[in-house]
Input
Amino acid sequence: MSTHRAPRARKLTEVIATAQNVARFSSTKAVEILAPLTAKDAASRLPTLIREGVEGLAETLATARAGAGGGLFGRSFIYAVVLPTVLFWLYACFWQSERYVAETRLTVRAQHEKKTGTDAASMISKFTGGGADASSQDAFIILNYVKSRAIVADLGGRDYMERKFSRAGVDYFSRLGRNANAEEVWKYWLSHISASVDTLSGILTIHADAFWPKDALDVARDIVRLSEQLVNKITLRNRNDALSRAELEVTLSRHMLADAREKTLQFRNKNILIDPGSRATSIGELMGKLTLERIDIVNALSTFSSSLDNDAPSQRLQRSRLAAIDHQLGELKKKLADTGAADTVSAQIASYERLKLDEQFAEKLYSIAQTSYHRARQELAKQQLYLITVVEPTLPESATYPKVTVNTLLLFCGLLVAWAAISLIFASIEDHMV
Output
């Protein structure tokens, strides 16, 4: 018995391997033939390709029936490949709801665009698609928003989705299920939305499909509207943040200026003078007058020293005046500058100059903060980001989906390859069991 079944099993293995190769070749060849054709031409060629593929397998099927229980082998092909393909084709042709696609193209532009670099690195980055500019980054923000749960919630959540995708007339397998949770609604949204960004131009292309042309147009327009609201929200937040920071800087600089002036006032009250510099000037003028008077006294003493005695009253008076002037000059010099005293004019001038420098610095900061604040208020009235609709969504006139011909062909080829592979596995198992 084993001598009789072993050759049959090996023969079956070879037959299934041949069937698998034929299936792969048929699917690849069919895709190459149908890819450049229109939907109408592909539909006319599909029956011929399926018939050729089936006829190409007829010989291997006949051999399999003769050598290894051909009835079971043929029935498996019919049930696993032909019947699902026919059922899917009938579903796609007579039951599956048509889907209409509305397209829109958007881009985001800033108020002040940066100039594009002209060096070699910038040119290479541009041609290779690297180094996306600010507009591309802003477009990616819109892209992530369109594919997020947030836009579904902003549209109205499950109620909105049910109004657009659960109407009467939509087939059971295509419609959004009733009482779907948030996760299911979001996944269903992603199945009806496609979006991509061109990094060179920064243009965001969005395709929205629905089961009625008006619904597809409404969904596309709602996406544009919510995207524009998002851009305006980002712009408003940036402007408010800039104004808040400028206002905070003004407040801080105002407090700093007030503290510096308060310290200057305390210094003046403590030293009972307005400006140490004016005091130093008055002391210098007084020292100059005393010095001139001292010079006159010294000259007089020198002049009358030869004619008058040193004990003469006039001479004693002149020497007393000279001693008094020297004492006054010494005291004035100590008031003006003395390393051992802290209340000298030089020390007061040093402290006062530090206080005035702090006050001037605070005044400068306050002036800059005020300028920034006024500029921020001016920018508050300007639009920093703009959502530009490059292509307005229009009402679709014909259905884009389902693609009956292509989908049926792909299903047939996929089932054919899977059936051949599984049959080969069973044949190999039978071969090893013998």
In short: The longest helix spans residues 213-271. The beta strands are 100-110, 193-198, 203-210, 385-391. The chain has 13 helices and four strands.
